[in-house]
Every structure is written in structure tokens, then in C-alpha cells.
Amino acid sequence: QLQAWRSASAKGHSEVWHVAAQTPLLEVPSPTDLVGAAAIPAAGADDGSGGLWAKVLPKPLSVEAGDCLGWYHTQGQGFLAYDGQGGDVAWTRLSKLTLGDLVDFATSPGHAMTGTAPRTYSIRACWAPILADVELLTSAELPCARALAPVTSTLPQWHAPASLDCVSDGFPRTWQNFRETLTTVMATAAAATTEGGHHPWEKEDDLASMAEDHLLAVPIDDQDFILKGVASFEDGLIGDNRHFTGFCLYGIVAALIVRARHLLLNSTREGLAYEMLHFGAMLLGLSKSARDFLESSKWPIRSSEIIELLHKRGLPGHWANREDIVGGLWPSPEFHRGLPPQQRSMSVTATGGCAHPCAKGAQVLGHAVVLRPLVDSAQDLSFVDTSLCAAGAGTLQHLRIYLRARGEQRPQPGVEGLTLQVWRPEPEEAHGIPAYVLVVESGALVAAHVGLHELDLGESGNAIPLQPGDCIGWRYSEAARGAISYAEADDAPLVRWQRGSVLLGAVHLFPEAARRVYSLSLAFSGIDGCLGDMFGPNFPAKMRGAPLEVLLSVPNVVGFTAGFRVAALGDHVTGTLEPASMVQEVARRAGFELELRYFGHPCPEDSRAKYHCVLRCELLGQCGPTDGIASWLASSIDYHDFAERNTRWQILLSTLSRELVSDDFLARGADAFVCGHPAVLCVTLAHAISPRPTLIYLQSTLLYGAPGCGRCDQPGHTLRYFESIEARAYLEHFQAAAASPSVAVLTNCPFASAQVWYQTGVAAASVPNQATFVLHRWTGRQPGVVLLPRSSFYETAFGRNFLFLLEGFLRVNRLPLRLDIQRKSGSFLTHAEMAERHAALLLPHDLGIHAFSVVYRLAMPLFVPGRSWAFRMHRAMPWGWTAYGGALPDDAKSPDGMPLACLRAQMPFSPWLDVDAREEEVSYWSAYSNVATFPHLQFFDSVPGFLSGLHLADLPGISASMQHFADRLLEAAVGEYAGALAIILPVAAGPSTSGSELNIELAKQLRPFGRTNSSVLEFGLRAPKSDV
Fold first, then answer.
1. Which residues does residue 496 pair with via DSSP β-bridges, in sequence order?
2. Handedness of CA 421, 424, 427, 430 (dihedral sign)
3. Alpha-carbon gap, residue 569 to 659, rounded angstroms
4. What is the pLDDT of residue 406?
5. For residue 391, how many other CB atoms are within 10 A of its CB?
6. Against a cut of 0.70, is the pTM above it?
């Protein structure tokens, strides 16, 4: 019987309770009534007769505030599973109990009838408030947003493949003993640790000895043994034990962490400790997240602990307090949240305050201070940048700098041993090679972390005088750690360097030089503080963790002549269909006819993308041979290797213009153009057809396929950084196009808006894909089938092993589920077929993908990895959005006239990532993805978490919520498109006739979204807080 217990403490009885309400006896007639039958065995039930049971109560229990959940168990068969952790649970043994009877749960020594103990029972009950408009659902899947359950409860207890927990007969029992001991020790330490503090583990020495014994028993220096062991682990995920070696991979990783932690805590043999940590990272395949699924096992350690130890975070006393060092860059790069600019300390802002170009009278020397891919690996070097020479006298007041760790340094530290220098050039004929006199050198600069930093030299007493012709330089000492990031380009300025010690006032020769751009910028003379109002009318006011909101100001009514003709161009079928279908939706609501034709979309040569050839025919009606736009795309972009071609803007413009002129509809028939992907096509198109109206819908980085790549593809780096005059000119062409009254720019995800704004100062509204071409809705008619939409992750080691692991859990737990995996090289399902699947599981391979939008439009319950997976997923497959870098200079102006450095000061990181990106950077930008900003998604952090969520979720309720939000989002999106069209189409406006007017206010009247206090995406495209 389920019961509601009410305390009698108000009557003076502290441990006395009475039953306020209870159900009749609840019975399970047979094991077949269990969800999944024998597929979900309870812990300890070897016969498989236990499992998860859900039941709608015959009559809801009426409870009051403060009532507690309880139950009465007769002497029949069966039991509630529990473990020995959690809050105290009290019990009493009774033969009869009626409503209102007082029961004393007080425990006395030797009294067997009552007792208390810390336990967590596997029980959960739906709870709904007493409101007239609350409808009690009757689904058998525990359909409640509010549930009464222990915080630590896990339903059910899933069995993992043997290779994860090392529990089968082939593994020594000592591994299980080690795991259980480690779990207990870590739980005890976690309970004793206060926020910001560190406590040694209980019996730390004994645990370290146990770990060392396990490591000595494994020939970890035998490469062949290790390779076979790793292969055996991966085979075990899919149940293939033909090559079983008894290799306990996660146990070895745990032992390495324990041993390394012990060495670091005692400051002994640190070199060995870091070798152990790197070996553990190799076993997990952390560079590509290949085998990082520790959350799905019973091992209590996580890969994040390896990373924290390698970065010297998480151990007490490992960093000395260096705040007293002159010129120190403190604190680490993070926002001074909640403080207005004038209250932020300039000397420690680290991107939090006003950047120097915003200040009155500031003169700027420098380049865009952004993440670039390269760093200097040598030490004991002095540099002089020949492009950073003063035209007049002044005083260096403010420094902005982007620092990176040196690739060979283990562990990755902060930055030390960096000094700022001023060099005065000598006549070259006097020495035969370039020579300079060192006139000023600052104190040592120190940073706890790499990344973007600012330093007010004036406040720290390090203001540096400059004479006309003086050039800025810097020096790395013999023990320097970290360096200024840079990029190479054939047209970059010369940077010179010399090796060895330097002396103030002495002449030094600089025999070596290269063309480079370093991420360093300085302001000098007359800094009086920030200008009154830094923010222009389109400036995103809040950039802290949630993307900007930009609402376009549009006229009320725009008239259209009947028979409006639109050309839609692109290379990605749904990428073009999305903005084109939204324009059609606006036209439909406005009541005027629209003729739409598609151009481009070459058939990919890559077999994995051949399905696009079918889609272009079925969805766009392009079933014939390729057209001129498709030919231009194929010649301008490498679709086979996705390598950058060293194209030039003038060539792109002239060749595209030739193709446009050759087609009568493009040359003379189209009244307006819609362009999807790639951005280089859209930017070139806008210039080629100007002033005809163009709507650009950005769905990938501006720089994919852009001109001016030069040396952007550096070996050993995932970031392609565009550092050339040609690339800068291209970004200026985009900025000019976006500022044109005949061009409107929208983006498909918050990250796109943030990146474009950071690069060029263009503020573009984010309007996620609506997928209005999806006409079916979720039915779930195939309850045993889970859809896995197309994702490039399946082609990575991480993706393959995840699928093996998921299938392994299904096999071990005998779950009647089937995975319907949609691979790029395979056949595809229709939307109607997709809608019949039970639910969907998606591993998004980028920050804004079309598969996500399709599933959301279907209103299909969708499970996605939680934010804790962002770092490992990016390592497994770097996001395409963040793989391209490049920006206009810091002193370039946004369309509103604001220096770009002022805008960039609002972000702690550049919106692109390289191979060594830190977890903080990845996590920050993952919050700008569509997955992170849409409501009603089901997040999981492990395979058991996904399986439990799938069984406990109210799938019909989730689908209804998704549908409700998608409908509201569509109204907001129509308003954004209508507003964009209203701006760019005055040239198409003719005499208004009845039924042919586009009424913006009418199109937007259902728009229900205003600003909310939600910490997630607002953008005018979110549901109210109550809906989130």
C-alpha cells in the first residue's frame, strides 16, 4: 500500500507519525506485468524476475504540504530494491494499521520492531498540485514533471557489459574490490569537502598502495599487450570475447589516477605522475574521446579528473599566490558579472571591461586580438613587430593579448616569463642587418590561464613611454611558459627576432624574420575611460552565457505586385529549402502569389552524401542536369577533400556574374534572391546582383570556401585561420553587403550570430530552422524502435564505440529495443516513417544541424547528450562552425561605428577552437547551440541514463510540449522573415491591391515572445519561462 504519512510533532511527539491517506493493496499478478518483463532484472535477482513496475493509482492520494511518502508491505512475495546510502529511512513492524493510528518510530537499543538506516529505495511517485485546470494523465510511463523520489534514486539498476566494470569470471576479483573501495573513499571525501576546499582521501596511502599493486600486476610497458588489451575492451562492448584478455581498462585508468594524485599531493616524482596521467589519457583515447564512457560504468572516476590534474587544477597548494608580481595578468579570463563597466577593475579585467579603442584619444597599435593557431616553441627569444611602430610620441597604457600554451609543455600551464619591450631602430647601413636598441622592458607578465587577457599598464604603474618610430616587441625568458598566438600569411608584416639575453640601452641584431600576425594590441596616450554609451542600437546587451538578441525595426506595411518571382540558390538541399519555404510561408500569409525556382545543389562525389542527389529531385524538383550555379560551386569549393582552394574575390565575382547572366530567370526574371549555403556564394551573389534584394540565411561559417586561405591549413591543427589581405577584404565585402538596404542577413543558430558579430560587427538575428517542409507528426507506432538520425559522429571512433556500448547494454539487459541507425551512406527514411519510431537519439556533430530541426518539427521525443559531453564530442569530431577563424582588425568599425575591439571585449574566448581547446572554451560555445537552447529535450550523461530516461519519460506529453513550442517558434520566425523582407523589398513594392499586401503586424501578431529571465537563448524566439 502506498501511504501518505503526516507528522504529529505539532502535538509534541517528535518521532510520532500517522497515516493520513493510503491506497488499497497494489499487486503485480505476474512478472509479465513488469515493464520489459524480465528484461530489467533488479539488483541481486539472478532469476530475472524483478524489474520496473509502473501503475496508475486507482484513486489519487490527497496530501498536504509536509506529508511524506511511505508504504506498507505485507508478508507477500517481492520487495523494493534499495542501497545503503542516502537519507534516513524509518520503519516499524505492525500487524494492522488503520488511518489515524499514531506510530512511534523512535528507535531504542535492542528493539527489533522499529529502526532507521540510511537507504535509497527505488520508488518514485507522480505529484500534482490541487488546481482546477490540472488534468491527471493516465499514461503507464510515470508521466509527471514533478515526482517524489530520493535525489540519488536510480531506476532501474542496469547491468553493463563485462568489459566496463570488470566483473565477469575472466577478470580477477581484486579489480572489483579495488573499485568498491575507491567508490567508498571518494564518496566519503566528497561529503567532507567544502566549496573551494580540498581534503585528502581517507586512507590515501593504503589506496595508493592498492593502486600500485594493481599496476605492478599489469605489464603496462608491453606495447603489444596494451594494444591487444584495448582491442579486447572494445570487442567486449559488443559481446565479442574471442580475443578476451582480461584487460581491465577502466580499472587501470583508475589506478593510474589514484597513484598520480598521491604523488602530486606529496610533491614527489611529479614527472612520473604526469607520465601516468598521460598514459591514462592514451588508454581512454582522450585525444579523440574514443573510449571515454566512464559515466556508463560503476567506476567512480571521470576523464575530467585527468584533465584537471594535467592542468594543475584540483590539487591543493599547487599554484603559488602570484598576485603580488608586478604586471601580473589576473584573474583568469572570466566575466565580472553584474558589474557595470565603470566598476570593473581595469588592471584585472581579463576581457571584462572597456577595450582601449573605446577610450577617448586612444591611439591603437596592434592586430585583432583573437585566437590564432600557432605559438613559438623556442625560449630565450626577443621579438620586434615592424608593423607596430609609433607614428608619434605617447605612453603605452593598455595591453590586450591572446595567450596559448606551448604544445610540447606537459602539463599545460598558464603563462610566465613574458615581458613587453620597446625597440628603437638603428640605421641598417650601420650594421648590415636590421638592428634595434632596447629602450624599455616591462616587468614579467603572469597569467594563470591561457586565453584572452587585458592589462591596464597605467594603473599597475607600468605605463611605457614611446617616441616616434619606436616599435613594440616582447621577450620569452629561458624558462618561459606559454606564448602569444600568431598566424602566418604571405602578405603579413615582418616580425623579427634574435636569440640570447638582452640589455637595456644596448644595440641588438635581428637576423631572423618571418611574415606573421601576432594576437597583440596596445593603446597609448590620453586614456580617460570609456565613452558614455558604447552600445549602438543593434548592440546585443547581454553576451554572458546566453546569445545576443537582435530585433529588427521594420515598417508596418509593404505592398507587393502579384506574381512575385524568387530565385533560391545553395549547395545543401535542406539548407536552401529552409529559407525558401519560410519566404513562401510569409507570402502565403500575406495572400500573394510567389514563383520560386531553385539553382545550384551539385550532386556530391562523396558516396556518403549521395542521398543529396535524391533529395534535390524529391524536395526541390531539380531532377535534371546541373545548372551554371552548380558548376560554379563545384569549381570554387572542394567537395571531395573539403580543403580550401586559394581563390580570389575578383575571380569568384566575375565567374559567378557570368553564370548569372547566362540564365534568363537569374539575369532578368527574379525579383529577389534567397541564398542558403555556403556563405561565400551568398556574399558574392549579393555583390553581383546589387541592388536587387537578397536574403542571406547563414548556416555555416563565413569562411568556408572563402578567398584568401593562404596558409590557413596548418599541420597538427584543426583550426583553419584566414590571415591575409584577401581574407580581410572578403570580410569587408560581407560587412558592406550586410549594411546594404537591399540585403538582409539571418542565421540558423545563436552561435552563428555570435561569430559573425565578433568577426565583422554585423548583428544578425538567429532564426533556427523551422523545417516547415516536414508535414508529418510523431505517432510512435513502433514502440520498440529508437531512431538515430544521420550524424557524422558515427564515422568516428567515439561514435562507433558509443553505438557498440549502447547495443551492449541492450543485449546484456535483454531489452526489447531496436536501434534504427541512419547512416549517410545508407538509404534514408521518409518523414512519415521517421514519425512512427518510439523516440529519437541524436549525437549532434555541430552547433546547428538540420537533422535536429527535422526531428523537432516531427515533435518526436528527442534524447541528446548533456552539456558535460560537449568537450569529448568536440574532441572526437571538431565542430565545423568552430574550425574556421578570421576577423577584421580590432580597430575596424562595426556598421554602427563601434570599434570591433569594444564588441569583442564582451566575450571571454574567440568563437573558434583549435585542437588544444580547453573545456571552458568548448562548454562556453556549446551553450550557443540549438540543442542547448531548445526546451523539452531529454538529456542524458550515460547509456544507463538514456535507458532510464526512455523508460520513465512521458513521451506523449513531451511530444505535445515540443509541438506547442515549435508552433509558437514558427510564428516568431515568420515575423523575423517578414521583417527582413520588409526592409529589402521596397524596390519590389508596387501599387497595393486588395489581398496583395504584406502586413507585417498581421504576420507577427501571434508572436508571444518577449524578454525573459531565462539563462538560455532569448532572441525573441523562445517560449516564456514557464514553458521552458
1. 384, 513
2. negative
3. 12
4. 77
5. 10
6. yes
